[in-house]
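Title: Prediction job returns without error message
Component: structure pipeline
Severity: low
Priority: P3
Assignee: unassigned

Description:
Job completed but the reporter wants confirmation the result is attached to the right record. Sequence as submitted:
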Amino acid sequence: MIDLLLFLELLMPTHKAQKNTEVVFYITITCYDWISLFEVTDFYKEIYKWFTILKSKGNQIYGYVIMPNHLHALVYVNRPALRLIS
């Protein structure tokens, strides 16, 4: 199975380092051509692992919606200049 962070970096065309501290980010991740990759590859558990990693680093997941081809999440980041993908 593809590593989640590698998978996300392949899907995301740009990365922006955020310099804000203590903010909530609205995150959307979309599969290429809206293919239902999350469903086909049973990738849901990898997304939950990513959430667990974020929470273990002191962040909070305020809400999320996972669909077969994309996800939305509200993530509170409480560290200065923390990149969500590193």
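Comment from assignee: result matches the submitted record. The longest helix spans residues 44-56.
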